[in-house]
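Lab meeting notes turned into a lecture example. A postdoc, R.K., suggested we walk through two folding results consecutively so the class can see how the record format repeats. The first protein's sequence and structure tokens come next.
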Amino acid sequence: MAGVIVGIGADLVSIDRLEARLSSVPTLAGRLFTLREREACAGGAARAGRTGGAASLAGRFAAKEAVLKALGSALAEADRRTPDGWRYTDIEVVSATGSPPRLALHAVVKTTAAQLGVARWHLSLAHDAGIAHACSPWGIPPWRSRPVRPGRSRTSSCGRFRPRISTGARE
């Protein structure tokens, strides 16, 4: 049974800028992307005759940011504090050859989404003119009614709230 779209997150990432940052900070890829994501992007680039898979990695990074924006807005709307310990690798973009990409959430991000009642994530990725774009709406089951506090709408305000996340680097 289909669900009801309740929130959305979206993000844009400069492919060249991410590629330059990944080149200048060798450990960054491991903090942002799971091994499975890095291998998939490198393999896809090799099959297409390109090197590095920067466009695919940028799309995945945009997807992670979109998920964080969607969850952050939902937490703000629910007057809930952002949990500590979120990591980019807790949000994984997975896909099989010939299949559309999908999201796999892990650890704190998965628990937070479940507590908010997220039943399903959707994901759309696009790359054009040196930019990667991700849009990630989320939904709840059609039978679940989400209360709305007085003076607040059901729509989230993307970009208003920025969750505290950890890249795994020591601060």
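The second example is placed directly after the first for contrast:
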Amino acid sequence: MRRTPGHLPHGSPTATQPTSSTRQASSLAPPIGLPLCCKNSTHSFNAAAPQAPPTHWDALDIEAGIPAIVSATQEQFVPQTVNFDLIDAVSFNKGCYPGQEIVARTRYLGKVKQRMRRARLHASEPPAAGDKLYCATYGDQASGMVVSVTPTNDGAYELLAVAHAGDGGDA
């Protein structure tokens, strides 16, 4: 899920629509748009500072290897294929959830057939999350899928894509 205020999924709570689970916590955080400061600190954020475009945040997430799972990529991957296991974004010790058996099996076998990688693409058409990727090795069969993408200043695209590991092992 994106962390910028302008990118909340349809139906998600906003600062003006708290849910019962956010009502208590909302009193602890200032509403979006107000200057923030730390308790007992003289430092604060400058409200007059220029706002970075959402593509800047996307580029930083892609550089850090943090995927944005959107409706086009939802339910397409197990956590290990988008490297959630490598960035400690999934717990293997807690609770029950749909797909837990597949996630556990993949973890204990130690192999995934696909892994997420960062790439730079020059294309005439802008790629989008969920687009399938093809290569000569696999012919007409898709060899991967775009997970996250953002344009660059030079007309290219930075993206995270899940692709075959090649040897069937851990990439």
